[in-house]
């Protein structure tokens, strides 16, 4: 990394990110450097990093450059790469507006999960077209201590296991990934959501995120939960021909998810820039690479 590296801090329903503007993809962003930045005691702190790169300057995004000028190179807090981050896309869009790269209204953002269409509303909410869910076959069981639950596989570009439970406290501290069976079900790891009902089409969730631990919100996770809840409730939009809208409470706020009969999913929620500054050159020299 260069010695004058700018950063911002932002969050979407308290899923928080270190934002690194790097239009020409010049930063040496190793997994260790990402983990050091996300460290909540010795670094800036965050659930992940949003590396902001021009699509044309990133080998994974060049093919999307004609459609989306900016690529969200998302990294989990442990430095691992993930396919998608739903809250991240909203915060990324808010950053682009904050930096004057885009105005209120519609824009497209390239991600590893394809181009996402975003709407920056006047009221501060950001809506993202999250694409369609895939529902891979297979029975999975998630366990915490003595309790276990069946979980539904939902893929939102990244893998999720959604378990409906009686009490969110039963998920325990979620510091470590909850074990699941069969152990080979997710060779690349999984995000695990625990869900309770709050009312009609209204649920609350906690999540253990692959590569970040328990977070206060997960956008792809909230979409996976809404998709699983609609199937459970007999409200699958493809079957009923009617959109299904779920309010999903997360520890850090509320997200609203709508799935249309064609399977397209939209997520709406807030996205906030909290601070900006530059990384201390001395810290950078000693931070792991
Ligand atoms: N917080 C994100 C999901 C980030 C990626 C996830 N940890 C994974 O590894 O798949 C969201 O808002 O979707």
From TrEMBL:
One of its GO terms (molecular function) is diaminopimelate epimerase activity. Keywords: Amino-acid biosynthesis, Cytoplasm, Isomerase, Lysine biosynthesis. The record marks 160, 209 as: Could be important to modulate the pK values of the two catalytic cysteine residues. Pathway: Amino-acid biosynthesis; L-lysine biosynthesis via DAP pathway; DL-2,6-diaminopimelate from LL-2,6-diaminopimelate: step 1/1. It comes from the Bacteria. SUPFAM superfamilies: Diaminopimelate epimerase-like. Substrate binds at residues 15, 76, 86-87, 158, 191, 209-210, 219-220. It catalyses: (2S,6S)-2,6-diaminopimelate = meso-2,6-diaminopimelate. The active site is at residues 85, 218. Gene3D superfamilies: Diaminopimelate Epimerase, Chain A, domain 1 (3.10.310.10). The keyword Cytoplasm applies. Pfam families: DAP_epimerase. Its EC number is 5.1.1.7. It is found in: Cytoplasm. Catalyzes the stereoinversion of LL-2,6-diaminopimelate (L,L-DAP) to meso-diaminopimelate (meso-DAP), a precursor of L-lysine and an essential component of the bacterial peptidoglycan. Homodimer. Belongs to the diaminopimelate epimerase family. This is Diaminopimelate epimerase. It comes from Streptomyces tropicalis.
């Amino acid at each position: 990394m260069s010695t004058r590296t700018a950063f911002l801090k932002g969050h979407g329903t308290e899923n928080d990110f270190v934002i690194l503007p790097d239009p020409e993809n010049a930063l040496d962003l190793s997994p260790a450097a990402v983990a050091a930045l996300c460290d909540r005691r010795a670094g800036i702190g965050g659930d992940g990093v949003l590396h902001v790169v021009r699509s044309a300057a990133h080998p994974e995004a060049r093919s999307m450059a004609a459609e989306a000028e900016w690529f969200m190179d998302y990294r989990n807090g442990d430095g691992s790469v993930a396919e998608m981050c739903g809250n991240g896309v909203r915060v990324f869009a808010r950053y682009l507006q904050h930096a004057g790269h885009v105005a209120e209204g519609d824009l497209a953002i390239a991600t590893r999960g394809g181009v996402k269409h975003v709407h920056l509303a006047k009221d501060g909410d950001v809506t993202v077209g999250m694409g369609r869910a895939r529902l891979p076959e297979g029975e999975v069981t998630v366990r915490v201590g003595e309790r276990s639950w069946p979980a539904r596989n939902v893929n939102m570009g990244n893998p999720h296991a959604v378990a409906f439970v009686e009490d969110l406290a039963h998920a325990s501290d979620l510091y470590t990934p909850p074990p699941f069976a069969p152990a080979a079900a997710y060779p690349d790891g999984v995000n695990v959501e625990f869900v309770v009902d709050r009312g009609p089409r209204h649920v609350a969730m906690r999540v253990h995120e692959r590569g970040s631990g328990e977070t206060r919100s997960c956008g792809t996770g909230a979409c996976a939960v809404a998709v699983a809840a609609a199937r459970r409730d007999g409200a699958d939009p493809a079957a009923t021909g009617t959109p299904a809208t779920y309010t999903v409470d997360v520890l850090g706020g509320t997200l609203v998810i709508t799935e249309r009969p064609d399977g397209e999913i939209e997520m709406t929620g807030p996205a906030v820039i909290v601070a900006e500054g530059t990384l201390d050159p001395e810290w950078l020299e000693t931070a792991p690479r």
